[in-house]
Amino acid sequence: MKDYYQILGIAKGASKEEVKKAYRKLAHKYHPDKKGGDEAKFKEVNEAYQTLSDDSKRSQYDKFGRVFEGGQAPGAGHGFEGFQSWGFDQGAGFDFDMGDLGDIFEGAFGFSSSRNRKEDLRKGKSIEVSLEISLEDTLKGVKKDFLIKKFVSCSRCDGVGAEPGTKRNQCLSCRGTGKVQEIKRTFFGSFTNIATCPECDGEGQKPEKPCNVCSGEGRIKKEEKVEVFIPAGIDTNQVIKASGKGHAGKKSGQAGDLYIRVFVKKHRVFERKGDDLLMKLPIKISDALLGGQVKIKTIDGKDISVKIPAGTESGKVLRVSGKGIPRFSAFGRGDLYVRLIIDVSKKLTKKQKDLLKSLQEEGL
Predict the structure, then answer these.
(1) What pTM value is reported for the model?
(2) So what's the pLDDT on residue 179?
(3) At what angle do helices 39-52 and 55-64 cross, to 10 degrees?
(4) In sequence order, what are the beta bridge partners of 272?
(5) SS3 for 43?
(6) Fewest CB atoms less than 10 Å from the CB: which of 35, 127, 286, 288?
(7) Residues 6+ apart with CB under 8 A from 301
(8) Across the chain, what does the average pLDDT equal?
């Protein structure tokens, strides 16, 4: 049996936030739409997340997840050590699927089965994309446009999947209920699960004639321009959710969501440290010794004056309050830190050399 904690690379006592963080990282890594993605691993990671992110499922998994591998379930009777040691002949009189054991226990002990819950097979999948922005873009909220290839609603049939003007007939598999029964025979007895009808995706109806453009799916794949708002103060690796901007659902089903992972490009002058900015400022030897005022240009493009104290050593850092990055989801801005670097010019004029020699003679 799969170890969902091991699949996500987390400890058994991990918090919900840690589960979500691990899932997002691995889903981004293995997404089949990405270069080098792995569909099998992506499904495995998604399966683990669906279980561990749900309190009820996780509790059941923690209690019974290892019973079928030889471990003893808490509170079980003596000798309950897994089915392999019971001596049953799995081929004697009925089909046996180890993958169905979770559903069996759910039916036998009253646990809620995911198959019994309302499941919308028509819902579109979510999409995650990466977006690179400049450091200047973080100073105020900006709108960004980009193209993504995704499923969109079919314009010919308006997303319903039927050829315009044709009828929609009752689904013969589920007789219009949108649900079907699954009966499993096991050595515990027969168990019945109610699942969404795979023939009509739970609609209860099927088109008399499927749409010629989307073949009855109600959606087609094409490139679409998406506009998103990037809030001020956002930082690298933060994710923005655009509800309903993911893949369109089948047959007018609910659309998935779009997740935009933001990356802020490095700046040639400023280095970001949270909400603060750090810059290096070359100064003359005379300014370092005697002090003075120098002008610098902030990230906003405005000129400000910075006072250099007399006797400044190279590497000294000055703080300019409120000239950093706007705080994300909060008021105010970070600070600007200016690291002073004494500029020792290699090329000196004769007059400069003479003056320095005079200073040297004076003991400076």
Answers:
(1) 0.58
(2) 87
(3) 100
(4) 277
(5) helix
(6) 35
(7) none
(8) 81
CA dist 143 to 67, 93, 256, Å? 52, 64, 21
d(CA 291, CA 312): 7
CB of 275 within 8 A of CB of 325? yes
Burial of 297 (0-12, 13-18, 19+ CB in 10 A): exposed
* C-alpha distance from residue 102 to each of 64, 78, 185 (Å): 9, 22, 14
Kindly report the backbone phi and psi dihedral angles of residue 119, in degrees, each rounded to the nearest multiple of 5, phi listed first.
-120, 125
Q: How many CB atoms lie within 10 A of CB 330?
A: 9
Please give the pLDDT value at position 124.
92
Question: Using one digit for the tens of pLDDT, what is the confidence trace for 253-285?
Answer: 899 999 999 999 999 999 999 999 999 999 988
Instruction: Name 59's Cβ contacts closer than 8 Å, sequence gap at least 6.
Output: none
- Residues forming beta bridges with residue 144, ordered by sequence position: 228
Give, to the nearest 10 degrees, the angle between helix 55-64 and helix 101-109.
100
Per-residue pLDDT reduced to its tens digit, 107-136: 444 444 444 444 467 889 999 999 999 999
How many C-beta atoms surround the C-beta of residue 89 within 10 A? 8
Q: What is the per-residue pLDDT for 37? A: 82
- Residue carrying the six token digits 């002073």: 340
C-beta separation of 136 from 126 below 8 A: no
The number of residues making up the chain comes to: 364
Q: Where are the beta strands (DSSP E) in the chain?
A: 127-133, 142-153, 168-170, 179-186, 189-196, 205-207, 219-230, 239-242, 258-264, 271-273, 276-283, 292-297, 303-308, 317-320, 336-342
pLDDT at 186: 67
Q: Report pLDDT for 138.
A: 94
Residue 335 neighbours by CB under 8 Å, 6+ apart = 276, 277, 319, 320, 321, 322, 323, 324
Place of tokens 């105020």: 140
Q: Which two tokens stand for residue 170?
A: 């009752």
Residue 49: CA count within 13 A, CB half-sphere = 17
